[in-house]
Amino acid sequence: MEALDIAYWRQAVLDIATAIEQRKGELCKLDGAIGDGDHGTSMALGFRTAASQLQTQEFSEVGALLEMVGGAFTRTVGGVTGIIFGMAFTGAGKGAAGKTETGTGDLAAMFRLALDTVKTRGKANEGDKSMVDALSPAVKALEDAASEGLNPKDSLALAAAAAKEGMESTSQMVAKVGRARYQGENAIGHIDAGAASIALIFESLHATAK
């Protein structure tokens, strides 16, 4: 697979929505250990809204489709989850503006812009115990894959593995952002739910590409 077309991205969003819905309880449990426990419900709502729009709206450009996902989070999901994931998908969409298909280099650029948007506007950095700790290594994996000339499917496999490793690393971190920051060292030993969502998203993106 040399490029991911608009049909891929449409199916990818639907598949992510299904994956999140199936594992929202797990995400809520992770969040409940150090947060308010509603992360899975919020993620499911955002993707359910986006999936619903896909049933009634046609998209010819990848960027517009992903910006729609970002808007679904911003409009319907409250709290930090809606803001941060809205920023991420809107950023990815802007990185894919005008594109009808995406190669590995495009994936790297899209998710780099998503990461930079979250870090700049969301004031989150690597090591803060947040979704950035999973997204950042995934972006690095995509950038390395692009430089090596790998195809999108294999690149997403590497990104998914990197995101999972980044997610797992959050269990050893003290949170510096979100509700978990009030837990201090009590947050150690718990995986960040936002990072878990990022890992699940990349896992699903790769599964759809396969």
Q: What is the ordering of alpha helices and beta strands?
A: EHHHHEHHHH
- Number of separate structural domains: 1
User: Which stretches are poorly predicted, pLDDT < 50 over at least 5 residues?
Assistant: none
Helix content: over 70%
CATH fold descriptor: Serine Threonine Protein Phosphatase 5, Tetratricopeptide repeat
Q: What's the architecture, going by CATH?
A: Alpha Horseshoe
What's the tally of helices? Answer: 8
Number of E-type strands: 2
**First-last Cα distance:** 9 Å
Trace the largest sheet across and list its strands. Answer: 1-2
Q: How does this structure look, described?
A:
The protein contains 8 helices and 2 strands. The chain has 210 residues and is mostly helical. It has one domain: Alpha Horseshoe (Serine Threonine Protein Phosphatase 5, Tetratricopeptide repeat). Strands 1-2 form a two-stranded antiparallel sheet. The relative contact order is 0.15. The model has no long low-confidence stretch (mean pLDDT 93).
Structural key phrases:
single chain; Serine Threonine Protein Phosphatase 5, Tetratricopeptide repeat; mainly alpha; two-stranded antiparallel sheet; 210 residues
